[in-house]
Inverse folding.
């Protein structure tokens, strides 16, 4: 199963929401790493594991822009996305629910 | 000084008790009651064993109490670290700007330390208030959103200096109202942390 280890594949210090706001933003992560990997996994009908453990911590807007942005900006199908992603975190398990909530909210806004 | 005065006091009490006992013995010689002047060796042995057992049981209990207090003191030190962490981060936020990595790492350090404290409490066979722990995690989640949830913005918004929360060069800036909201959330977290610690220390 393909996987993304954020601390190894992106940064130990994930940053703000937008590229213009500072280094290692959610927008950058989504554009360069997450979206291509998710697209590939959906096309191959595979699951993609995202490992959150490792970095110094995540801001709300980084996570929202990364995962909610897949629906809002990249127009990915919500159901396909949810079925494709396996998110893991032993250090901060509540982040998994938060990310699911961001994707759900982006989907709800998209419908309106 | 203190030990000497305790010794004097103890000697006086002992003398008073002996004198009272002797006087009462003289005054009340109850007819029909005789005190056996012969000693049964089994009874003496029984009294001796009881005294020795009492001594060792009290020693063991004292030792266990001391260990339990030592463990509690160590855990209280970790609570103190958490409180310090909250105070330091809060002071930075009150200055209306904080580096984004400082804010995000505060949330993670707080969560991990709290998880560790709870694991240690379980390992040493003590208990903690699960409901209070959940409240703390809700507080820290609220605080993470208040500290790091920057809105969707366009270029015009970035030029506006009075947005509630904005980020430039990975430094988060807050306006006065946002600082007040965040300060309240910090206070709520501190209160719940204090209640959690209080509850833990009330256990025997």
């Amino acid at each position: 199963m393909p996987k993304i280890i954020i601390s190894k594949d992106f940064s130990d210090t994930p940053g703000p929401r937008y590229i213009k706001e500072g280094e290692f933003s959610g927008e950058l992560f989504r554009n360069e790493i997450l979206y291509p990997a998710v697209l590939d996994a959906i096309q191959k009908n595979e699951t993609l594991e995202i490992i959150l453990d490792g970095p110094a911590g995540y801001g709300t807007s980084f996570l929202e822009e990364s995962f909610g942005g897949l629906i809002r900006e990249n127009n990915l199908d919500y159901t396909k996305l949810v079925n494709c992603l396996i998110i893991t975190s032993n250090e901060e398990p509540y982040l998994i629910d938060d990310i699911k909530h961001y994707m759900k909210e982006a989907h709800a806004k998209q419908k309106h | 000084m203190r030990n000497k005065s305790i010794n004097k006091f103890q000697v006086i009490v002992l003398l008073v008790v002996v004198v009272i006992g002797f006087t009462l013995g003289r005054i009340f010689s109850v007819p029909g009651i005789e005190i056996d002047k012969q000693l049964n060796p089994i009874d003496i042995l029984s009294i001796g064993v009881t005294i020795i057992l009492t001594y060792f049981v009290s020693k063991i209990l004292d030792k266990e109490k001391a260990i339990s207090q030592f463990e509690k003191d160590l855990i209280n030190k970790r609570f103190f670290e958490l409180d310090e962490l909250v105070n330091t981060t809060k002071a930075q936020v009150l200055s209306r700007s904080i580096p984004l990595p400082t804010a995000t790492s505060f949330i993670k350090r707080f969560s991990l330390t709290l998880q560790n404290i709870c694991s240690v409490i379980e390992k040493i066979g003590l208990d903690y208030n699960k409901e209070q722990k959940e409240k703390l995690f809700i507080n820290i989640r609220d605080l993470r959103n208040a500290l790091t949830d920057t809105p969707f913005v366009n270029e015009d918004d970035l030029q506006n200096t009075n947005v509630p929360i904005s980020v430039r060069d990975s430094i988060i800036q807050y306006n006065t109202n946002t600082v007040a909201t965040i300060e309240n959330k910090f206070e709520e977290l501190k209160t719940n942390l204090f209640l959690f610690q209080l509850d833990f220390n009330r256990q025997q």
Notes: Chain A touches chain B at residues 13-18, 20-23, 56-62, 64, 91-92, 94, 98 (CB under 8 Å). The first helix of chain A runs from residue 6 to 9. The mean pLDDT of chain A is 95. The first strand of chain A starts at residue 3 and ends at 5.
